[in-house]
Design brief:
- With 418 residues, this protein is an alpha/beta fold.
- It has three domains: 149 residues, 3-Layer(aba) Sandwich (Rossmann fold); 104 residues, no CATH class; 75 residues, RNA polymerase sigma factor, region 2, helix turn helix motif (Rna Polymerase Sigma Factor, Chain: A).
- 44% of the residues lie in helices and 14% in strands.
- It contains 17 helices and eleven strands.
- The strands form two sheets. A seven-stranded parallel β-sheet has the order 4-3-2-1-5-6-7, sandwiched between helices. Strands 9-8-10-11 form a four-stranded mixed β-sheet, covered by helices on one side.
- Helix 5 packs parallel to helix 6, helix 11 packs parallel to helix 14 and helix 16 packs across helix 17.
- The protein is globular and about 60 Å long.
- The N and C termini lie far apart (50 Å).
Length: 418
Amino acid sequence: MKAISVLGSTGSIGTQTLQIAEEFPEQFRVVALTAGRNLPLLVEQIQRHEPELVALADDSLLPELRQRLKHLAGDQKPAREPHLVGGAEGLNIAASWDTADLVVTGIVGCAGLLPTLAAIRAGKDLALANKETLIAAGPVVLPELKKSGSRLLPADSEHSAIFQCLQGTPWAENARLSTGVPTPGLRRIQLTASGGAFRDWDATALERATVADATSHPNWSMGRKITVDSATLMNKGLEVIEAHYLFGLDYDHIEIVIHPQSIIHSMIELADSSVLAQLGWPDMKLPILYCLSWPSRLETPWPRLDLTQVGQLTFRSPDTAKYPCMELAYAAGRAGGTMPAVLNAANEEAVAQFLEERIHFLDIPDVIEATCDKHKQELINHPQLDDVLAVDQWARTTVREKVRQGTSRTSALPAMAA
């Protein structure tokens, strides 16, 4: 039985991880949970899984959580009351919890970076659903992985597909993920993208795009932020950077392909020109399960893929006029250093401003590009953790200031603090 700690248990990745734990009670037990503000759902999770430790990101909510657990009826109380901790240190404790064999990193955004590093430093294996860990801090994370010997298993569908396709190749025998060393025999990666909410829109029609439009994904059920990232194709651009760090290929050999059916989750081309693909219904539970069970595969009762039901699989190149964020991500990845951290933070803040209807959908790439352009003067080629955290905050402040000043590309931007 594998003991797991779930960071971000009330989010999309966390809830699906816990569903898998319930479906396979003889394979997995939950020893630690972390959550944000959704206390009703967290209490239900504590009742079902009886973790040893629970951490709240906002430690001011700990008294309320204690009260909720105290007032549960006798037959609803968990058999053992968990140890409760809070704040940033509490998240780090959960990430490095002694009895955990595997840590599922489902905290969205750069907030998941520090607890992920805590898990790595504790020598824990990770199911990585927080792509920002590598995107923002790849130069910091890779040395820590080498030092601790932690194994990093990709939990998002695209990188899981690549990881699965590489099983059985010479790479799988000895190589470890996230060493920054090129993967032997791997010539090319093709990341498939659904195209998001606007895949069938003409680029000129985006002038009338609303928040409701951008958060209506045709294939996947995801959080609002990642759904907007899918609409801009920034999610795929960020995945390109993540794939670079995971598998060691340069950016000229990592491609994006629009695949509306979302059945092929990504493809690899090997040195002999063979192309391998991983297929499945659009469902995040499969890549999460593979992380939890790897190197084994578990028998599931889930619906089997029927290609006759799918009917056809189609592909096309992404429209750079419709998806300027994609090119911004490639440029940031090639610049390296702290630029991917600035790109990621600027995107998170720009999407937040859009969801609050302070900027238009088409302003998202504009403010990201302006922020990255400003950072070129301050780029740090070999950043430390403090550098990554500093530029993350600078980028968010810069975007907010630009929004306050107006979203014209010629708007003045604040100078980065030394």
